[in-house]
């Protein structure tokens, strides 16, 4: 059984780090390299970097930023944002990322997931699933930075992505992003019970208890979060932090 993971999820915009609320209202956090150096010191197991403008603005992934991060990063990291071709994935891996997270292209060109898994191995391919309720209260998958409603059910979509060859799923609740009100345990559980690949839960963490809950109550393989790792408290000052090794051991054991 794979070890459970607690993963800082860091958002890139214009080569800097930001934090959003419900995928909007971004707050500048600082330089990504400085954050990486701090996470190195705190012995973080893994990082996720997501460029939040790349797909929405049809931009190329920031390869130089990825290379700069790889130069300083002591731990494996995943990059997502603007990925729509095998050549881009190859360049990102060559730049130093261990995994790629694919969101918008997974919906528009699902064959990319199958092809990428065949070429790079399924463990390299993470499909990122952003979701929120529509006007009628039905949870649906959104792409293009949360701006395009695919009308797809998150659970059915997760199953489809696993069948295509995704090695991991990154499940992100748009409505809980930056709110620090706890994970969407019901949705995470529905997905973990429907697929056999690891599921990373994201959106809403505010405490170590939230990490524990998403593992023990919802069956997540990993818990990702942003605000809890970059703010001193709810929106009060930037402070890069991470649980101590003893706290992590208590959560994942």
UniProtKB/TrEMBL annotation:
It catalyses: 5-[(5-phospho-1-deoxy-D-ribulos-1-ylimino)methylamino]-1-(5-phospho-beta-D-ribosyl)imidazole-4-carboxamide + L-glutamine = D-erythro-1-(imidazol-4-yl)glycerol 3-phosphate + 5-amino-1-(5-phospho-beta-D-ribosyl)imidazole-4-carboxamide + L-glutamate + H(+). Its EC number is 4.3.2.10. SUPFAM superfamilies: Ribulose-phoshate binding barrel (SSF51366). GO terms for molecular function: imidazoleglycerol-phosphate synthase activity; oxo-acid-lyase activity. Pathway: Amino-acid biosynthesis; L-histidine biosynthesis; L-histidine from 5-phospho-alpha-D-ribose 1-diphosphate: step 5/9. The keyword Mitochondrion does not apply. It comes from the Bacteria. Keywords: Amino-acid biosynthesis, Cytoplasm, Histidine biosynthesis, Lyase. One of its GO terms (biological process) is L-histidine biosynthetic process. Pfam families: His_biosynth. InterPro entries: Aldolase_TIM, Glycosyl_amidation-assoc_WbuZ, His_biosynth, HisF, IGPS_HisA/HisF, RibuloseP-bd_barrel. Heterodimer of HisH and HisF. Belongs to the HisA/HisF family. NCBIfam families: AglZ_HisF2_fam, WbuZ. IGPS catalyzes the conversion of PRFAR and glutamine to IGP, AICAR and glutamate. The HisF subunit catalyzes the cyclization activity that produces IGP and AICAR from PRFAR using the ammonia provided by the HisH subunit. This is imidazole glycerol-phosphate synthase. The lineage of its organism: Bacteria, Pseudomonadati, Bacteroidota, Flavobacteriia, Flavobacteriales.
